[in-house]
């Protein structure tokens, strides 16, 4: 009987020990569970922050791509505007060049018309010729490069015909002399005739040269032209 009581007491003590041990294990397990929960919460917070950072980086990247696209578009627009401006500038330069050429031509044409209509054109041509300029200098002094000796002839001959002169021939390279120049001078412009032709013909006004061509009349001869005294 006593042995059974001792065994019963031992069983109760063991049961109490096991219950205490079970309670300790439960407490420890609960503490570990709380710790793991805290760790999980931390991990969830870290993941949330990481997701937020990734989302922010994505938005920044998208904004950067959008900004880059806008900058590229602006760059293309700037290039287009620059090309348009350069094209407009080229057109304006071409227009100004043409306008300048036209104004120069207009001035030359206007000057030529003034020369054609002026009664002093022959005196001016005689003045230019009296300085014995070279052919190029004579050409540069004319109102326009397109005015050839034939044009001068066409302008001068009707004027002299109206004044009663029988002949008016102009040649910037014809050999001869003016009536007031020495025999070695080269004749330019309005002249009284070729010395060589006159020497071959042996006559004065109205003579015929050796080659059959008509001699040039002496427009400065007072006998034939009274108006020649004014020159």
UniProtKB/TrEMBL annotation:
Keywords: Coiled coil. It comes from the Eukaryota. Residues 18-95 form a coiled coil. This is 5'-adenylylsulfate reductase 2, chloroplastic.
